[in-house]
Amino acid sequence: MSSPIQTSYTNPAGSAPGAVNYNAPDLTRHPPRSPRTRLGGFVHLPRLIDKARAVVVGKNGDFHYNCPIDQRFLAFTGLNPDALFAEIKAGKSDSEILAYVLANAQPKRHPSEIAAWSHWFEQLTATPPDTRAFFNDVHRKNAANRDDIATWFDWLELDDYVTFGGRP
User: Residues with Cβ < 8 Å from 128, sequence gap 6 or more?
Assistant: First the structure.
């Protein structure tokens, strides 16, 4: 008698005892997705998800969930960071997380608002003196000769690249 063939597989959440969350990236070995990567039109959301998943399994390295950049996304969507983290910790897919974001955003956002915000966020520069000093210090450390590093997204991608062995 043959055993039934498994035709579907449910990825267990990283928090289940003894479970392995195959969706959780190991951010001690490689960076999260680029902040420019979009999900549902939102820039940065895939990166935020990667960082949260890595925190769940203890593989976040120097990356943090709910950092100041994440907080820009959370402020735009009106989402509670703990509630969003709980959804991610439950092992939900990117599509399921996007559905949660869209269902729980306060206020609800029209796709044109999401597109405009994403464009604005991609162009965001460090302006207050304290954040500008931090931005400049890391920029000088990573690529002092590069004058094309102007936005936070430029800075994040450069820092990710250099941190994991790339040469500027």
Answer: none
pLDDT digits (tens, 9 = 90+) for 84-143: 999 999 999 999 999 999 999 999 999 999 999 999 999 999 887 778 888 888 888 888
Percent of the chain predicted with pLDDT > 90 = 70
**For 114, which DSSP code?**
H
| C-beta separation of 31 from 163 below 8 A | yes
Domain boundaries, the chain: 24-122, 125-168
Q: Residue 5 corresponds to which amino acid? A: I
d(CA 39, CA 145) in angstroms, rounded, equals: 33
Whether the CB-CB separation of 32 and 50 falls below 8 Å is answered with yes
**Contact yes or no for 56/78 (Cβ under 8 A):** no
113 CB-side CA count, 13 A = 10
Q: pTM for the full model? A: 0.84
Distance CA 88, CA 94 (A): 9
**72 neighbors 150 (Cβ within 8 angstroms):** no
Query: Which SS3 state, helix, strand or coil, does residue 43 take?
Result: strand
Q: Would you state the pLDDT for residue 127?
A: 84
